[in-house]
Amino acid sequence: MSVRRIVPGKKRVAILISGRGSNMQALIQAAKHADYPAEIVGVFSNKSDAPGLEYARANGVPTATRSHKDFASREAFDAVIDATLEDWEVDYVCLAGFMRIFSNGFARKWTGRMLNIHPSLLPKYKGLHPHQQALDDGATVHGCTVHWVIPELDDGPAILQAEVPILPGDTAETLAERTLAAEHRIYPEALRMLASGEIAPL
Q: Which N-terminal stretch is annotated as signal sequence (predicted)?
């Protein structure tokens, strides 16, 4: 029988990933600091071979996986995620490259407790390929946004943003690389602000 470890005063956070989870890595590293107000209590993936799972395990974070392909409906799969989060007794959920759209019921239940990071200065360039969208638009400034997750895709209120200049000769790849560095900086900061009570929940 396992004994659940609870750190007094720290918010319990789960992270959802589908791939390498580089933003997950940034959150796990931030949470290692004694004065960080949140602890990462679990990482869930819809892909059992997601590289980020091995990183989580190597850093002592419990993991769980279930494939969405095993379920007949979005709602059925979301129910498994929900049960996992409840079992981990999480306060907040952070999405880090989780490539699934939630059912409205799941999104509504976790509204005010679920965060995402999107690689654009929302409300600009929602959805896929935001870096290419910015380049095609002739933008001179790009960036990233930590925002609340609500049923509408990439439409929740922003918590924190960071600007990234678009440089002459930028490609979607080079712009994505610079934007990712900003993501790794502001996602842990946004979670810190929320977990410490510096900003109010949605």
A: none
